[in-house]
Specification:
- 26% of the residues lie in helices and 36% in strands.
- With 299 residues, the protein is α+β, with helices and mostly antiparallel strands.
- A hairpin with a 2-residue loop joins β4 and β5.
- The longest helix is centred in the N-terminal third of the chain and has 25 residues.
- It starts with a helix and ends in a 10-residue tail after the last helix.
């Protein structure tokens, strides 16, 4: 049997052990405090704007090698370009492509070959720039893992009237929770989104027994996916963009039609061998993304 002093000493020892365990848990896992900020849309938009301004400040002065390839029912081909991109706060954006096999040649527009491509795979960050936030609606869609990173899915929808290259894309961004930089973006233009919404409505009505609508030529939609797989000084840059032209089908109970989409055309843009004309040091990048260092607002 333990006497009184022995029991008291034993209780003090147990309490000290519990205290050490609680402090260790708090140190290892901050928990609610860290989670609360990234579950608050307003805070997420502040951090995404910070990353967007860093991108304009440091990233958009570079050259890289770009390969654009297309596969469709009628052709398969690929072209290689030197891609130059320069952003200046006074002059704005200036980007152009030249053939990699013809150094010093005049700029060339890939659209002149008659195929689709995304002119600027680097501009998704601007969807979250503070100057464009009033022209979009954003929604948090939860967390998941992508490429070994914990990410937050954020959807964005433009508010009418839509303006090309400003607020004309509906999409989803996968945001790295550690840095609030983009890892992946999937999007479609407003006109394609309208077709997608109409087909979804038609599918629901057919499922309820409505007559199958006649085939419409405008059942084609274009989807764009950009992956940010390149890294430099703690910043991420596009490594691949895929543009898929898809025919949206309306399934019904017949064995010959067992799918709801058919890919008509696919274009892939790949980027490598980045050369930067100017980029901040990794420590500066980290401090800016954490809000410890400020950069001037950009237009």
């Amino acid at each position: 049997m333990e006497n009184g002093p022995a029991r008291a000493s034993r209780r003090r020892f147990i309490m000290r052990c519990l205290l050490v365990w609680v402090l260790a848990c708090v140190t290892i896992n901050p928990g609610p405090r860290a989670g609360a900020s990234v579950d608050d849309l307003s805070e997420v938009l502040v951090r995404l704007d910070r990353a967007s301004r860093l991108y304009l400040d440091s990233a958009l002065k570079f050259a890289c090698d770009e390969t654009i390839s297309e596969s469709s029912i009628t052709r398969v081909w690929a072209h290689r370009f030197n891609y130059i991109f320069v952003y200046d706060a006074k002059k704005g954006f200036d980007d152009y492509r030249t053939y990699s096999s013809r150094p010093g040649a005049r700029s060339v527009d890939p659209a002149s070959f008659g195929f689709r491509y995304l002119q600027r795979s680097y501009m998704w960050a601007l969807v979250f720039h503070k100057s464009r936030q009033p022209f979009h609606h954003y929604r948090l869609e939860g967390r998941e893992r992508l490429s070994g990173r914990e990410v937050l899915r954020v959807t964005f929808e433009p508010l009418a009237p839509y303006r090309p290259n400003f607020n004309d894309f509906f999409g989803t961004a996968w945001v790295d929770l550690a840095t609030f930089q983009l890892l992946r973006v999937e999007a479609m233009r407003a006109k394609d989104h309208a077709v997608f919404e109409q087909v979804q409505k038609d599918r629901a009505e057919v499922a309820q027994g409505a007559p199958l609508p006649l085939f419409r030529k405008d059942n084609l939609v274009e989807n764009v996916t950009t992956e940010f797989g390149m890294q430099k000084n703690g910043m991420r840059f596009p490594s691949r963009t895929e543009i898929t032209l898809t025919e949206l089908l309306i399934p019904f109970n017949r064995p010959l039609l067992d799918r709801d989409t058919k890919v008509v055309d696919r274009t892939v843009q790949r980027y490598k061998n980045y050369h930067f004309f100017g980029v901040r040091a990794e420590g500066q990048v980290r401090d800016i993304l954490k809000g410890k260092q400020q950069i001037a607002p950009s237009p």
